[in-house]
Design brief:
Layout (H helix, E strand, L loop, with lengths): L6 H9 L7 E8 L10 E7 L5 E6 L10 E3 L4 E4 L1 E6 L15 H7 L1 H4 L7 H15 L2 E7 L7 H14 L2 E6 L8 H16 L7 E7 L2 H4 L1 H14 L3 E5 L3 H8 L2 H7 L7 E5 L5 H10 L2 E4 L1 H6 L7 H6 L3 E4 L12 H16 L7 H7 L2 H6 L17 E4 L8 H8 L5 E6 L2 E5 L2 E2 L4 H19 L9
Parallel strand pairs: 1-4, 1-5, 6-7, 7-8, 8-9, 9-10, 10-11, 11-12, 12-13
Antiparallel strand pairs: 1-2, 2-3, 5-14, 14-15, 15-16, 16-17
Helix pairs in contact: 1-5, 4-5, 4-18, 15-17
The chain binds zinc ion.
Protein name: Amidohydrolase family protein
Keywords: Hydrolase, Signal
Length: 461
């Protein structure tokens, strides 16, 4: 069956899309995070009717420019966070497998509950995850969608939910293994991409990638994914070298097959990439492969600490992700930055190992670069979407970067804007009924948990 984008999805996407009045945002603390622009700007940002940034300048705006003003003086204006690795549906399942590492945790979540999902579950859980991320300041996410629901139609609810949520996203797609042949599997993805591109500008999907599962399911599957990704010009993201025991047992030795199968190229994006060997790191960096670091999830699941400063020295591009909210367990980019940065500082007893500016840049522009959407989002610059946060900082502010990274969390977020449209104000989602959705999610999870109670968890991935 052909993938479908729901009518509601299209209408809502247009409604949350590009129709805004031009306005200016005034602030004495604009952090653009644009390449080479570390100086804090005291000035204004002009947003056009298409939801894109027209200008960012120091000083007073010209008298002739738009009259509508968002006064953010005394507050920090920064680009929305970009999260490069997420499973949005997991937001409904926090706090599970508290004493487990990756595989024990997977057993307590995916393999216990997955088969009991019904129509509508993935939609509700994914929408919940996307809205929750926006409340926490994440305006662009890569949803590494997962196929735990029983049917392809249920699986595709993840896409429909993101189209409705209003958050910018990249859809990391899993080829439909129920289709018997390669051409049919590929055709479904080609149709989805074409159908999305045919929508009027204003929808929140910034692009597609492939979620590679072949690394766990055999060389044939992997080479099929690699050839589809290369043919369609998509990146492929894979979970790799996450849990320590599995990495040492089989993960590291799988690299040879990946290399020989053409899987290590500049379209490969690793999620986690913790337990590397010198060879794996060097070959990957030389090939132009990239990675998403997920320190919150890596800490929670005791996966280990990626030696990110060394990776960067080797030339690897590194972005940040909060991962699924069942292993994070809060999709909080502030906490994510601190977890990663503090772990490195503790390890090395060296405060110079990573600066506030560097970790903030990693969760905005650098992640957008890894996802290849830096021409659209990731920093505040003319031509890009006006995806920004207004932060009410603790005072006094000695250094806005340090205040953001050390002394802020989601409760400091005054408002969240995507495509120039305000989506969140004082923690409240403006375009969806989040409290009602939370009740619906709780009911659906209770139904699934009751159904799972007397069944044995599945024992496969
Ligand atoms: Zn993941």
């Amino acid at each position: 069956m052909k993938p479908t984008i729901t009518r509601t999805a299209v209408l809502l996407a247009l409604a949350t899309g590009s129709i805004v009045h031009a306005y200016q945002v005034r602030s004495d603390m604009i952090l653009t995070m644009a390449d080479g622009q570390a100086t804090v700007i005291d000035g204004y940002m002009e947003v056009g009717e298409d939801g894109r940034i027209v200008a960012i300048e120091a000083g007073e705006p010209p008298a002739s420019s738009s009259e509508e003003i968002v006064d953010a003086r005394g507050r920090i204006v920064m680009p929305g966070f970009v999260s490069g690795h997420n499973h949005l549906w997991q937001s409904a399942f926090r706090g599970l497998g508290a004493d487990q590492e990756l595989y024990g945790w997977l057993k307590s979540l995916h393999w216990t509950f997955g088969r009991h999902f019904e129509t509508g579950d993935m939609y509700a859980f994914t929408l919940h995850g996307a809205l929750d991320q926006m409340v926490n300041g994440i305006t662009t996410t890569l949803n590494h969608s997962q196929t735990i629901a029983p049917s392809y139609e249920d699986y595709m609810e993840q896409f429909a939910a993101e189209m409705d949520a209003g958050q910018h996203f990249i859809y990391s797609y899993v080829l439909d293994s129920d289709e018997p042949d390669v051409e049919a599997r590929k055709a479904k993805l080609v149709d989805l991409i074409a159908e999305t591109e045919a929508l009027l500008d204003g929808h929140p999907c910034l692009g597609f990638g492939l979620h590679g599962v072949g690394i766990y399911r055999g060389a044939d599957k992997m080479s099929e994914e690699v050839s589809v990704a290369k043919e369609l010009g998509l990146d492929m993201q894979v979970h790799y070298l996450e849990e320590k025991a599995e990495s040492l047992k089989s993960g590291q030795s799988n690299f040879q097959a990946m290399k020989e199968g053409g899987a290590v190229w500049d379209g490969l994006v690793y999620a986690h990439f913790i337990h590397v060997t010198d060879e794996i790191l060097n070959v990957s960096a030389a090939a132009g492969a990239k990675m998403i670091w997920n320190p919150l999830s890596n800490g929670r699941l005791a996966s280990g600490l990626a030696d990110v400063p060394r990776y960067i020295d080797q030339g690897l591009q590194v972005g940040l992700g909060v991962d699924g909210a069942a292993s994070a367990d809060i999709a909080d980019p502030f906490q994510n930055m601190r977890m990663g940065m503090y772990a490195l500082r503790m390890r090395d007893s060296d405060a110079g190992i990573m600066s506030c500016y560097q970790i903030l840049e990693m969760h905005t522009l650098k992640t957008a670069e890894v996802l290849e959407v830096e021409d659209q989002v990731g920093s505040l610059a003319p031509g890009k979407y006006a995806d920004f946060l207004i932060i009410d900082p603790v005072s006094p502010v000695f250094d806005p970067y340090a205040t953001l990274v050390f002394a802020s969390d989601a409760s400091n977020i005054e408002s969240v804007w995507v495509r120039g449209v305000k989506q969140v104000e004082a923690g409240e989602v403006l375009k969806h009924d989040l409290p009602e959705l939370r009740s619906e999610v709780a009911e659906r999870v209770a139904r699934i948990a009751a159904a799972a109670k007397n069944t044995k968890p599945e024992d496969h991935m």
